[in-house]
Amino acid sequence: MLSQSLQQKLQLKQKLSPLQIQTIKLLELPALELDQRVRKELEENPVLETKETEEETDNSSEVSLNDYSGNDDSIPSYKLYVNNQSRDIKKDFPTFSVKESFHQHLEAQLGFRTLSEKEHNIALFLIGSLDDDGYLRRDLDTLSDDMAFRQGLEAGKEELTQALSVIQEFDPPGVGARDLRECLLIQIRNKEQKPLVELAATILDKYFNEFTKKHYDKILSRMNITEEELKEAIDEILKLNPKPGGNVDDSYTDRAQQVVPDFLLEIKDGEPVLTLPRFSVPELRINKRYADMLLKAADKSSRESKEAATFVKQKLDSAKWFIEALKQRQNTLLNTMKAILEFQEEYFIEGDETKLRPMVLKNIAEKTGLDISTISRVVNSKYIQTHFGIYSLKYFFSEGLMTENGEEVSTREIKNILAESIRTEDKRKPLTDEELVSSLNEIGYKVARRTVAKYREQLNIPIARLRKQI
């Protein structure tokens, strides 16, 4: 007898408005990309137009959105234009170059592949989801949901797997791997398949757990090979790069991108003064001709007129969301940077790295009342020009540790000491992580071995055995 049952499942889903989605997308863009995004919007939406500085006193083209029958009251109907100087980058404003990023290098390679538009967009999304070391650490099901939500692109796990296999063929070898084993296997399979390389590939494929735990006796007995063959195979494996994204500065220095700071910081009368560049929020307004077209079309009953009214209504909605999203982006950027400035005021005034306080995203989220994810979007790919140089906002974030005297110090300070200790070590007998711990403890920094290992890896410094020189 079959049993029947009813199950009631309560799900709470938060649906973001078009304005919220637009704002999130704009928050992620640095100054130059924002300028390109605005130009694209101007090309695609005839309702939008720019308002130059000399026309600011002319209100003839302003339009109240109360004049058309819209049901979306999520945005106040106050004058919808962004007040600023110009959307053009001023020639007298400094720019600087940074090396081509790891993700940009992969995107460039993607451009040479023959893919459908959907396949290209899936691969592009996956590239953007890679960590800086080249790994894809998010599962494909989650990425599929995220891609559908953020880009309106629906793709199953099989399609994502196929796109990932394309990325895994890119340079540097090993990119797009989901774990260390896959990363090393991708690299070893790209090599010329000599007997020694094939032996190394077999060890990684079938005996990876024994290899990582150094259970060499098990490998010897199960593969029926000599110790010399095992040693040569291991040497071949140790030549592989466990972090393919870590060599971007060494490998891809030929091309550079221009970066324009998103913030300007000056010291006036001993106080820090923060401003946004004049071009950072291009000045936009709604084109009155299309608003009038909507009003006239609303009074007619013909099919063509209704279709025209629907089209213009959609464009007006898109325009007002875009303008308001620009405003919200500007306010969010300023509030976030002001919170960072307040938190690190002593550092920003003096420019002394030792004055940099431990700070994480949560600290700024609490000061601004914004979500950590929002702070992360603001910080990512944004730069500030100060009187002591131009810095990525990520530079100012680091965790903290307590010294034996009870003082909190930035992990950046610990990393600097760690790097200097390794730089001056005897290369014939490099310092182990345990010895580095003892060295740090002697000067008052109580750090665990696993913490030293983590910082060493973040500095792209190999273990002692791999630093040894004859």
Give the number of DSSP strands: 10
The radius of gyration over CA amounts to 28 Å
Count of domains:
4
Strand order of the largest sheet: 5-4-7-8
Summarize, please.
The protein is α+β, with helices and mostly antiparallel strands and 470 residues long. It is built from 21 helices and 10 strands.
Question: How is this fold's topology laid out?
Answer:
Layout: H1 18-27, H2 31-44, E1 48-50, E2 96-99, H3 102-110, H4 117-128, H5 140-151, H6 157-167, H7 180-190, H8 195-206, H9 208-212, H10 216-223, H11 227-238, H12 248-251, E3 256-259, E4 263-268, E5 271-275, E6 284-286, H13 288-298, H14 303-343, H15 345-350, H16 361-368, H17 372-379, E7 383-386, E8 389-392, E9 400-402, E10 408-410, H18 411-423, H19 433-442, H20 449-458, H21 464-467
Parallel strand pairs: 4-7
Antiparallel strand pairs: 1-6, 2-3, 4-5, 7-8, 9-10
